[in-house]
Design a protein that fits this description.
- By secondary structure, this protein is of the alpha+beta class.
- Among the domains are: 33-110; 147-194, SH3 type barrels, CATH 2.30.30.60; 200-281, Alpha-Beta Plaits, CATH 3.30.70.
- It contains 8 helices and 8 strands; from the N terminus they run H-H-H-H-H-E-E-E-E-E-E-H-E-E-H-H.
- The strands form 2 sheets. It has a 5-stranded antiparallel β-sheet. Strands 6-8-7 form a 3-stranded antiparallel β-sheet, covered by helices on one side.
- A hairpin with a 2-residue loop joins strand 7 and strand 8 (249-258).
- Helix 2 packs antiparallel against helix 3.
- Belongs to the MscS (TC 1.A.23) family.
- Pfam families: MS_channel_1st (PF21088), MS_channel_2nd (PF00924), MS_channel_3rd (PF21082).
- It is a multi-pass membrane protein.
Length: 305
């Protein structure tokens, strides 16, 4: 009995295998199927080739539009243009690749409407759950678009001041002069002070003692200012006159136009030159004084016995 059941099982197994092989051979020998598969594969290859050509043309067009041209009527800052060019290229790549994926799925007869509807619902849920991220991205886009600052600029936002190292769509990275790196979400950047856009004004106060002749000191300062040589100095330094008179002495104020964010270096240079010419001409700097009054002198001054 068991041998009969085993024989029937083997026979059924062989029949199923024969049916599978017959169907497989029918499929393999079906020229229409191979023709349709070849057409689908050919359309997919064509879609990919066209997408690559479209990306290449878009990249060249973006490079042409954002390239620095001397005859261009629209004067844009080079760093801003480069940043916008990279942003546009990345956006084009994501958009074209997304369209390619949809077209390829369509070739396999996959219904795109449910997928797009599901993606829309998921995107809406992510948007509600990541409002701060969306705010950072939108703010970063407008920072780049409006050219508020660029990589290499010295800016201050809130309590952070330093050189911009990176501008992303989500965050901005700032390095201060002591080496610390500050990563600030773009959504929290409300007010920005850019020190690298226009030339700066360096203000230098030089103190002299009360015993010195002010006119002589001013003449010496005026004679040395036009001779200052520094690559950061744009205009000729100007002596405005006496700024203050107090216990620290008489302060002479000097102003000079210099390159952006170079006030400290120019100030040190002017102080060095003024100190040298004052020493050569015997102009003394102010110093602390102490007056001692004896008790007897105090009584004589008040008219006492």
């Amino acid at each position: 009995m068991e041998a009969l059941f085993a024989s029937e099982f083997v026979t059924q197994k062989k029949n199923l295998w024969n049916q599978f092989t017959d169907r497989l051979l029918d499929k393999i020998e079906d020229t229409q199927m191979w023709t349709n598969a070849a057409m689908v594969l050919g359309r997919i290859v064509l879609i990919i080739i066209v997408s690559r050509l479209a990306l290449m043309l878009l990249g060249r067009f973006i490079d042409h539009v954002t390239s620095e041209r001397e005859t261009s009527r629209l004067k844009l800052r080079t760093r801003r243009v480069q940043t916008l060019g990279k942003l546009l290229k990345n956006t084009a790549v994501y958009t074209v690749n997304f369209i390619v994926i949809l077209l390829v799925l369509g070739e396999f007869n996959i219904q795109l409407a449910p997928l797009l509807a599901g993606a829309g619902v998921i995107g809406l849920a992510i948007g509600f759950g990541a409002q701060s991220l969306v705010k950072d991205v939108i703010t970063g886009f407008f920072i780049i678009l409006e050219d508020q600052f660029a990589v290499g600029d010295v800016i201050q936002t809130g309590n952070f001041k330093g050189t911009v190292e990176l501008i992303g769509l989500r965050a901005t990275r700032i390095k201060n002069w002591t080496g610390e790196i500050h990563i600030i979400p773009n959504g929290s950047i409300v007010e920005v002070t850019n020190f690298s856009v226009n030339n700066a004004i360096a203000v230098v106060d030089v103190n002299i003692a009360y015993e010195e002749q002010v006119s002589q000191a001013m003449d010496i300062v005026r004679s040395v200012l036009p001779k200052l040589e520094d690559s950061n100095i744009v205009g000729v330094p100007e002596l405005l006159g006496i700024q203050t008179m107090n216990a620290a002495g008489i302060a002479l104020r000097i102003t000079v136009e210099c390159r952006p964010n170079s006030q400290a270096a120019v100030t040190r240079k002017i102080n060095e030159e003024i100190k040298r010419v004052f020493e050569e001409n015997g102009i003394a700097a102010p110093y602390q004084r102490m007056m001692t009054i004896q008790r007897g002198d105090l009584v004589d001054r008040t008219g006492g016995a």
